[in-house]
Amino acid sequence: METNKKNICIIGLGYIGLPAAAMFASNGHKVIGVDINNKVIDALEKGEVIIEEPYLKNMVEQEVISGNLIASKKPQVADAFIIAVPTPLTKDKKADMSLVKKATESIIPYLRKGNIVVLESTSPTGTVKNLIIPILKKSGLKIGEELYVGYCPERVLPGQILFELVNNNRIIGGVNRKSSEKIKNLYQTFVKGEIYLTDTITAEMCKIVENTYRDVNIAFVNELSKICENTGTDIWEVIKLCNKHPRINIHQPGPGVGGHCLAVDPWFIVEKNPELARIIKLARETNDSMPQFIFNKIENILKNIKSPKKVTILGITYKANIDDTRESPIINLIKLLEEYNYKISAVDPYVKEFKYKVETISEAAKDSDLIVLAVNHKEFRELDFDTLAKKMRNKIILDTRNYFDKNMIERKGFKYYLLGKANE
Ligand code: SAJ
Question: Cys-Cys link to 200, which of 128, 280, 295, 310 (CB 3.0-4.6 A)?
């Protein structure tokens, strides 16, 4: 008789692996969290975490104390192994699968008959079949009969990972039906959403298609924001009115698409289908062009102002209310400003250390010519514009997210510019 409580070994304790480890542990499983980064392991041993994610710290702390979550530098014998290591892009925009390969190799000595192996890392199609299975075969176990293998992509949104881990629907692609069912039983201990079963390549495709769908839609609206500036229309008004149509749901334009998912995964499709993935590639390039577009807008706004010009950036993360700067388009914007000798100050309450960091906005705005609202962190919602007006050399604001109240800002004596609306 199978017991519901398993020993689970999770390889990779990043933004996906650690929340999954804590979630399995809080549902009564014994979890061994494995990572090659000493900092991660040292922190976990003390019940601490080195990433910012709502409620994660408490959950991890509780499970370390309960003894259900243990940190380890090496895998151990277990019932199930979950691989959740990063799959970054190489310089030539190919998936770097070396960490997945290493992680899979690392579990071979610990595999036993009846074990489950799940890949969660976002991967190009064919990864389970062509990379994982050949390695797992070295265990001597019969795949699908003695070792149950499959792909179960994560789908959680940074900022609400713990909620989405439980409530989102999941897709599981097993190497055979039995593998899918075994993996489903494991995840069902905490997943309240529906769990849909399919084959491995379909599950792999679904994961990258989901993020590509979003990337392409954002590219569409980013392109429209350029077109609106060119035609003298206001993209935000256009979106608001178009979205009243029952079948239209236009996304939000912004300074670009960052993070470790949308800015990366579409390339996995392009890599495997270079001739066919035309819109997908162009969408990626369009989103990547946004920091340059914002930079050009800044140049235009400040063209009559004496150098050295100072720009104050609000927010450097890839999106609001998180601490993650991976692939952040704002970093690229800052590089362009650097290249053209702008003086720069930046504020981000979520990021502990970065170049140009100034703790307070009023300090950062001192002698500044322009404030750029780059990330719509909640802390930027209500600024003291009266104080900022006194500190700045020129009272100008560029809002890349339609976040501020234009009328209020103009009443305070600022000139207000908005992405997607031509400079007046
Ligand atoms: N963005 C826009 N306009 C929008 C929406 C987002 O410019 O209308 C930008 C954000 O500012 C950010 C980037 O896109 O720079 C990505 O942000 P996001 O909130 O859309 O997504 P991620 O990368 O944080 O998480 C995505 C999610 N995927 C989908 O929504 C399809 C999440 O469910 C995935 O689990 C995650 O990728 C992942 O790990 O793959």
Answer: 128
Q: Catalytic site residues?
A: 207, 261
Encode pLDDT of 315-345 as tens digits.
999 999 999 999 999 999 999 999 999 999 9
Place of tokens 């970093």: 331
Query: How confident is the model at residue 1, as a pLDDT?
Result: 44
For the chain, which residues score pLDDT lower than 50?
1
What does DSSP say about strands 396-399 and 370-373: parallel, antiparallel, or unpaired? Answer: parallel
Q: Which residues of 340-373 are buried (b: 16+ CB within 10 A; e: fewer)?
A: eebbbbbbbbbbeeeebebeebbebbbebbbbbb
Task: For residues 186 and 175, give the distance between their C-alpha atoms in angstroms, rounded to a whole number.
Answer: 16
Structure tokens of 121? 């890392």
Q: Which atom of ligand 1 is nearest to the CA of 329?
A: 15
Amino acid at 45: E
User: Ligand 1: distance of its center to the CA of 261 in Å?
Assistant: 7
159 contacts 127 by C-beta, under 8 angstroms: no
The angle at the Cα of 244, spanning 238 to 245, to the nearest 5 degrees, equals 100
Q: Which residues contact 232 (CB under 8 A, 6 or more apart)?
A: 422
- In sequence order, which residues have a C-beta less than 8 Å from that of residue 424 and are 6 or more positions away? none
**Is any ligand 1 atom within 6 A of the Cβ of residue 312?**
no
Q: Is the CB of 262 under 6 A from ligand 1?
A: yes
In the reported structure, the alpha carbon of residue 326 is separated from the centroid of ligand 1 by a whole-number distance in angstroms of 12
DSSP state letters, 74-97: S----SEEEE-----B-TTS-B--
Helices (H), 232-348: 235-242, 265-272, 278-288, 290-301, 329-339
How high is the pLDDT of residue 51? 86
Q: 259: Cβ below 6 Å to ligand 1?
A: yes
Which two tokens mark 218?
A: 């954002």
Q: What pLDDT does residue 239 have?
A: 98
Other CB atoms within 10 Å distance of the CB of residue 106: 19
**Distance between CA atoms of 85 and 70, rounded to whole angstroms?**
18
d(C-alpha 332, C-alpha 256), whole Å: 10
214 lines ligand 1 (CB under 6 A): yes
